[in-house]
Amino acid sequence: MSDLAALVGVTKVTVSRALNAPELVSVDTLERVQAAVRQTGYTPDLIAGSLASTRSDLIVALIPAMAGTVFQETVESLTTELAAAGYQLLIGQSGYDESREDALLDAVIGRRPAGIVLTGVVHSQSARQKLHACGIPVVETWDLTSEPIDMLVGFSHEQVGKAVAKFMKKRGARRPAVVTPSDRRAQARTKAFLEAFGKTKTSAAIPVVTVESPANLGDGRRALKELLDTNADIDAVFCGADILALGVLMEADCQGIAVPGRLRVIGYGDLNFAKDTTPPLTTMRVDGTRIGSLAATMLVECIENRAGNEQMVDVGFSLIEREST
Questions:
Q1: What global pTM score does this model have?
Q2: 6: which of 50, 96, 225, 280 lies 20 to 30 Å off by Cα?
Q3: In this protein, which residues make up the domain named HTH lacI-type (predicted)?
Q4: Cα torsion at 111, 116, 120, 125 (round to 10°)?
Q5: Three-state DSSP class for 48?
């Protein structure tokens, strides 16, 4: 900033005002400072600025995976809503390993962002203690708990599983199977589905194939092969992710299995390809855009000491029925 001031021929205070409160300087001075910024490639030191002002404009969001996931709508909504309020969003990829998330949280808390958005609820006691103690506003998303750390926007994965079981029974399924990712939230949906569906027509246990999170299309194809090798009479498959359901549909087509005539398939997520599969995929949809918007609003209101309406919001979910069932 001293270099800029010398280049323009003004004080550091004037440069600071031009960068942070341009309405306080003349148009001529502002243009000269902006020209100097372009000439020198100067970028303000945001860490120093936040230390001086005791206020950060950075929000950190941790998501399990970056690409091709149900979280994309939430990230886009967070980015848009926070930018409109004058905040910048930094994304961290936490994966599905709880210990990795704890280590990433340590790094995040140490940098003192204005707020933190988490995917899922925090189960690690040490992480909960740190988040409680740090004083940074926190929003947990994409899950429900009776004991949130601070604020929460989500839905019940257990209720999703129960809703799928009820729908599958209504559609005439008698020998269902499950293909599920290994993460905690997917496992909660699976457990609820199994309990809600109950015993099959043959009283045999409902077969479940679990794949590593994040799942991919090939996992779905291999899972259906495995299921058919050991349970050739299955008539429905609940997939814990749309990408798995896409793999199941492709493998069924490869093996000449009619969907939904011989096999009903339902996914989770309503990703952008779900309506364009063959046949179009029935799936469970969660409004990720609303989750992001609510999380951003809650954070900004908390950071700026404005009274918010709710600290916990259940956004629910919806069944998108298409031709695959």
A1: 0.81
A2: 50
A3: 1-53
A4: 50
A5: helix
pLDDT category at 127 given cuts 50, 70, 90 is confident
Domains 2-44 and 55-155+288-315 share a fold: no
Q: Which CATH class is domain 55-155+288-315?
A: alpha beta
Return the CATH fold of 157-285.
Answer: Rossmann fold (3.40.50)
Give 23: exposed, middle or buried? Use CB within 10 Å, 0-12, 13-18, 19+.
exposed
Amino acid making up residue 138: V
pLDDT tens track for 289-310 = 999 999 999 999 999 886 655 6
- The one-letter amino acid at 17: R
Euclidean distance between CA atoms 59 and 138, whole angstroms: 10
Measuring CA to CA, how many Å separate 187 from each of 212, 258, 275? 11, 28, 25
Q: Which two tokens stand for residue 190?
A: 């699976």
- Residue 204 tokens read as 């045999």
Looking at residue 132, what is its pLDDT? 87
| 27-40 helix and 12-20 helix, angle to the nearest 10 degrees | 90
Average pLDDT value for residue range 279-283: 98
What integer pLDDT is reported at residue 309 of this predicted model? Answer: 53
pLDDT digits (tens, 9 = 90+) for 36-51: 888 887 776 655 655 5
As a residue count, the chain comes to 325
pLDDT at 55 over 90: no
Does domain 2-44 correspond to CATH entry 1.10.260? yes
Q: What is the spatial distance between Cα 229 and Cα 96, in angstroms, rounded to a whole number? A: 29
Cα 222 → chain centroid: 26
**Where does the chain have alpha helices with state H?**
2-8, 12-20, 27-40, 46-53, 72-84, 98-110, 125-134, 157-170, 184-197, 217-230, 242-254, 288-303
